[in-house]
Structure formats: structure tokens, C-alpha cells
Amino acid sequence: MNITRRALAVLALGAAVIAPSLSQAAEKTIAFMRGGPDPYYQFGMNAAQAAADKLGVKLITYSANNDPTQELANVQDAITKGVDGILIYAVSLSSEKAAIAQAKKAGVPIFFQYGYDESILADSAGIMQVDLYRFGEPVGEAIGKLLPEGEYATITGKLGRGDAEAFVQSFKNGIAKSGSKAVSVADLAADWDRQKAMDAASQILVAHPNVKAIYAANDDMAVGVAIAIERAGKTGQILIGGNNGAPYGVELIEKGQMTLTGSNPPSIASVNALRLLLGVIDGSVKPGQFYYAPSQVITKDNLADAAPWDAKPEMVSKWLEEPLPQGAAPPVPPTN
Amino acid sequence: MSSPTATAGKPANRKLGGLQGRDLGRYTLLIVLLLIVVVTAIGNPRFLSVNNLMNILFQVSALGIVASGQTILLIAGGLDLSVGAALSVAGLATALTIMHTGSVALGILAGVVAGCVIGAINGMLVATNRATPFIITLGTMTFLQGVAILMSGGSPINGTGALFDVFGLGDFLGVPWPVYAMFASILVMFVVLRFTTLGRYAFAIGGNEEAARLSGIPVRRIKIALYALSGLFVGVAGVILTGVLDSGLPSMGTGYELRAIAAVVIGGTPLIGGRGTVIGTLGGVLLLGLVSNSMNLLGVGANFQSAVLGLIITAAVLLQKKA
Question: ipTM of this predicted complex?
Fold first, then answer.
């Protein structure tokens, strides 16, 4: 009897040890790397984590703190750890190239969220981003329709990487496309920072008291612009167009302090990127394709339909049921 | 060998030159400030409007408070690179406390205490270790940046209720409350430096730490007190900035450490310590605010602004050094 009990105990112990390792063998491990501590990456990571939990995928998260060297170290560490794939918001193009070289050498597929460059597409598992050259265009078009003439100003992010410049240019293209005769009287940069945008907007309101619309290239800066307008006692008199569709931007729209925002929610984008990467790993998705990240213009009228940054688990489940995005021709710079 | 004539002539020249230099040095910053005011006022008459001048003071208020605290540290030969990250932590402590308790008073207390405690810990680390304040506070800066992200989960903590009504929108006699807070901080630091034992000890430690120790000054305790005092100022700035932005942000203090040190150095306090004034620091803070404001009002393109700002700051510092 004692011998039987002992044998059963040994069997149970053996099963307990072997079972998890068997399931681990089937479980995929994905490294999720974000460029820095920005809320955009954080919300993307949260949604990817929720999707990974539902798909039975293990997600290991890394942050490069906006440091390309740290990013490369993270890629190397993840490869050493034996991950099956890497999902990355890269810090810069140069760090992307270094990361892709490391991943290619190790045979680990790497999927990029933003940072599209023609030279890396073929070696990547895929790249997903919005069309940066046209990102501000729908916002400009919508603002242009509300402002047939008059003065407007723009506040963009940190110059030098190309995206901040492209957002403003595309916003202006949108204004022109709408048929509006409105003219730009000031183009300032506020480094994507709420406080700097507040300061810049205050100065715009002093220098150009007839300004009727301000475009902020992200919603964090739009919050600063809204505060500056409120401090100047002009709430409701100046249109504000933002970009990103962040929770605080949506809140401003709800309160009537912002007119609209061009949303590119990181939540659904990261969920789709994770699914595409897993597809590349199991061979059901062709690597090296470009995908457009979901985007939409959010106004007070369609708030309920907007994909939120802070996606609830049931929403993530719904996105997992939707068809996978299809590869598309990458964006090209406008000719103007 | 110098000729007797040259040698004989040198002290007199040096004295004369020193007097002129000191006078010029005292007024260099003022001259630069006036130059910017005049040029900008000619370029855009709205620059001198009360509204714009209040905007400038409002925009530099948090920096002015942080820089006031940094002044006494630099005078004492110290340095705190963690003030920006500490400002974020203090701001988040305020916003989170308000969010969870609904009490603005508790939020203010949390922010100020957080700043003060961080300062005191920095002081203890600096006072009891041989490593330079630069390295020690670089370490705490990195640590606190991580703490700020953990506290906020990487996202803004929005909504500060009455704090926004006061610091974001409120004013007294047309002057925004953060501006009063900045001038109060400068006044407090002026009094500390000019009339208290702590201020005198700060100058003594910055002038010659070993001599200060040998003369019986409790250098370690004084250093801890100085860092705690600077931390208190950072905590106050964190509370105010949280009110101004109606939110606590993990990145709200980014860059404050360098701008605060730049303002103090532009204001005439050398990095090696031993001398300096908080009034000079106020001049440095105003210079930073004025340059940015005037460029925007003069329509200087965004691509040029950083280069122009750097040139003006470098010129201001070099002119002072030369004088």
C-alpha cells in the first residue's frame, strides 16, 4: 500500500513537473519593446498584453527610454532569452537598422510599429504605421470646413525627425484641400510637451489676437493649448485640432474644449501588430509587408464609435475576432 | 621677466579693471535683458503688453522656484541633477493624492513632502559619500524617472480640481498665483542667503569645504539641510506645475535640471560655488523666458529657435565671465 502511494506520488510529481514544460513548448514568447515612457507606447503595450493573455502568448516587455543604445541592448537580450518574435516601437531609423541586423542574424522575426523606411521593409516581419505625410490632413480638412477664412496657427512636436514637420504640412494641405482661405500666421514647435505647448499658445494669442484655430500635432500639446485659451478667456472662440485621439484629448472634446482630433489608437494597432507577427511566425502571414495603422477623425458626434487607447479586455477580444489587416503599398511623400 | 614699469603698473590697472569688470559683470545680464526687451518691443509692440509680460512671468514661475533652490546648492559647491525627476514625482504625488482623497490640501502636502524627502535623501547621499554630487544625483535622477513612470503607469493623471482653478486660472490683482509663488521663493532664498546662519554656512562650504569643517561648521548636517531645502522648493514647483497643467505627468520635469542650472549660472553663480545671488538667478530665469517669448513674437522660425537660444545663453555667460 505504502509502495503504491509512493509510486502515485512520484507519478503526480512527475506530471506536475512535465506538464508546464510541455505547455511552455507550445507557448510563444514575444518581446514587446517600446521606445520610451510615453503614454502612447504604454497604452499599446497594455492592449498587446491583453491580447497576448487571450491568445496564450507570453509577452516580455522592454523600454529603451528613448536611447538607441539601450534599444539595441534590449534586442540582444531578447534574442539571448530565446524569444520567438520581437514587436518594437523603435527609437530611430539607425537603431531600427541595428535591431533588424541582430534579429536577422538570429533568425528572429521583428515587426515594427512606426519607423517605416524602404530599406528595412523586406528584412522585417512587417511594418505598421499611419501615413505620416497625410496624418494631419483630415484634421486640416475638418478645421478648414469650419474656418472658411481667417488666421490659424500650428504647434508641432520636436523638429528634426521628420514626423513633426510632416504633420504640420499635412494639416496645411488639408486646410487647402477643404477650400478654406484661412492663412497660417505662426508655426511653432513645442517638442510634443504639454507645458511648452501651453506657453507657445499663450504667445500666439498675444502676437496674433485674431487667431481663430490652432492645430496641435498631438493631444498632449492640445491640452496645453486648451489651458492657454482658457487662461486667455477665449474658450469656445478658437477651434482646436489635435492628433492621436488620446484619452485626455477625447476628454477635451467631451467637455467642448477641443473641436476634433485625428486618432491613431495604439491599442488596436498593437493588437493587430501582435497578430500579424504571430502569423509570420507560424507561416500564415507573408513577412516584409507594410500595413496602415487604424486611424479616424474623432469629433463630439462620433465619440461613442472611437477606438479608445485604454481598451477594455472585451474590446480586445472583439478586435481579435476581426479579419487581419492586409498588406498595402507604403506611403510616398506628397509632391507639393 | 616683466619690466619694473609693467609690474608697477599692473596692480593699479588690475584694480581699475577689477572695479570696471565687477560693475560690468553686475550689469551684463541686465544689459542683455534690456537689449532683448528693446529689440522685441520694436519688432512687435504687443511684447510690452501687460498680458504678455504676465505670460512670461507665469511661464517661468516653476523654473524660478526650482532655480531658487538650486542657487543655494551651487553656492555651497553642490548640484542636484535630480530636480526635474523629483519635480515629476512631487507633481504626481499631488495629482494622485487629489485623485484618491479628493483633498487638494493633502495633495499639496504630499507634493511638498515628497520633494523635501527626496532632497533630504540626496543630501544624505552626498554628505556621506565621496562620490561627486553630479554622479550621485545622476543616479537618483534615473531612479526617480523610473518611480515617476511606476506612479503614473506611463500616463497623465488628469484633474486637480481647485488646484487648477488657483494655479492654472487664478490671479490676484491681475498677477497669476504661480508668479507670487516664484517671487515668494526668491524672497525666502534671499533671506536665507543674506540673513541666516544656514546661508552663511553655504557660502563658507562652497568657498572652502575643508576650511569650513576645520572652523567647526557641521558640514554634513548643513549639506543635508541645503538639499532638503532645495527639495522643498522642487516640491512646491511640482505642486504648482501640477495645478497649472491640471495634471501630473511623468515627464513634466524633463529638462528642468539643466534649465535651472543654466539660469543659476547665467545669474552669476559659478559651478564651483562660494559666491552667487538669488537675484542673479532671477535674471537668468527671466532671460530664458524672455528669449523664448521674444523669438515667438518676432516670428523666428521654429527651426532657428534652438540655435538662437543657445547662442544668446552662451553669449550671456561669456560676457559675464569676460567682465
Answer: 0.73
